[in-house]
Amino acid sequence: MKTTRTLAHLDGGVARARAGSTGLLVGGERLDASHRVAALEERAALQVVDLVLEAAAEQAVALDLPQLAVQVVVAHARPWLAGDGHGDARTGQAALAALERATADLRDGLIDVLVTAPINKQTIHSEAFNFPGHTEYLQERLGEGREAMMIMCGGNLRVALVTIHDSIATVAAGITAKSVSDKLAAFNRSLTEDFGIHGPRIAVLALNPHAGDAGVIGSEETEIIAPAIAEANKRKILAFGPYPADGFFGSGAYTKFDGILAMYHDQGLIPFKLLAAENGVNFTAGLPYVRTSPDHGTAYDIAGQGKADEQSMREAIYTAIDIYRNRRREAEATANPLRKQNFDKGSDRLPAERG
Predict the structure, then answer these.
(1) How far apart are CA 304 and CA 94, in angstroms?
(2) Which end of the chain is more exposed for a tag (fewer CB within 10 A), N or C?
(3) DSSP H helical ranges for 235-297
């Protein structure tokens, strides 16, 4: 399987990988992860292959941080592809088995972050996987009652979605004052905790062309989206808009914001993938665990031809590591906040010292 061979040469990393294997990528906190490997092999009888990312290790040394390793969990010995380059039910079963094992190990604390390869919705869909995609599956398995949020990130471009894998026919029904308000709050929190941006500026896109033209084309902007933005502002969230999507991206206005909240999948992902290209990463925010993936699909049409570009997978690994570290730093920085003290103007004494 090309996956492991490609991962084996990421940034000069060293991998002891069995040719033709297929697996799902997971991340460990320390370079010496023998205790994790032993636990995984004992309970699952899986092959675990250490993949040391040289660049990440060098960065860790420079910052005096624990070095990191990436492990490939090999759940099946070989992939199943039909002769025409399409998967079948066995391909989906293999992907689901790896996904189930990795999420279980994540919950059990055997790994710290999860980086998934793309899945094919048709082959994986079954009674055991009745979800529109990874995001909804991970919310069910790892959410602990929290709602997952899809954030596409690449460089300084971060695009989040109000509705995710909804059909166009049902998108408008999913745009409510509550859904927009909740997503703004979640996005603001993620930009702070996961990306280390304090006081992020968030642009909110309109649902209708021309932002509804003041109600001529549609009323969602004036009746739903604008009030949700105003409510977010009251909670000190720096949200702006709603902006017509075409002009917003066409004019380059997206460069002035830390995050962009799109109303539906293609509205956000088409411009994102054009701008981020092979550097794009899909991050599942809002969960107590870190999960990233490349921003592309399975590409069965080029399977086995040596044409796949591994850059998005590389970026997904680095992004997962960065987010994991950012969460730890934010938790440490806010663990014991100083008690607020009130001073009289013109005096340097505390109220209790007045006499």
Answers:
(1) 17
(2) C
(3) 245-250, 265-276
Q: Which of 220, 223, 230 is nearest to 264 (CA)?
A: 220
The residues, any chain, with a CB within 8 Å of residue 143's CB and separated by 6 or more, are 286, 287, 288
Smallest CA-to-CA distance from 55 within 112, 8, 12, 98 is with 12
Selected residue with higher pLDDT from 99 and 179: 179
CA distance 27 to 140: 21
Residue whose entry in the numeric block shows the structure tokens 């086995």: 304
d(CA 227, CA 315): 36
Q: What per-residue confidence (pLDDT) applies to 256?
A: 97
Whose tokens are 């994102």? That residue is 272
Q: Cα–Cα–Cα angle for 221, 226, 235, nearest 5°?
A: 155
Instruction: Using DSSP bridges, classify how beta strands 113-115 and 290-294 pair: parallel, antiparallel or unpaired.
Output: parallel
Helix (H) or strand (E) holding 141: helix 134-142
Read off the pTM.
0.76
CA distance 288 to 293: 17
Instruction: Confirm if 238 and 202 have CB atoms less than 8 A apart.
Output: yes
Amino acid 89 reads A
Mean pLDDT of 328-354: 73
Q: How many residues are recorded in the chain? A: 355
Distances (CA, A) of 41 to 56, 67, 133: 25, 22, 28
Residues 31, 292, 179: CA angle, nearest 5 degrees? 145
